Amino acid sequence: MHDARTLLDLGEVAVHSLSRRGYTLDLTTIEDLFTRRNSSIKSADELISASRIGPGSAF
User: For the residues 15-31, what does the mean pLDDT come to?
Assistant: First the structure.
């Protein structure tokens, strides 16, 4: 399995390397999915944080 950030950083080099092995890499889709993943992680972290503080908390 490849790291999405590494593939995005390599850009066209990764596209070319993988195409020589018979694979197709769509950087636009990878970027979109990576952004959505990070957004989801951030939202989940915020929800977890909010649930720990909760109503009636001393904080």
Answer: 95
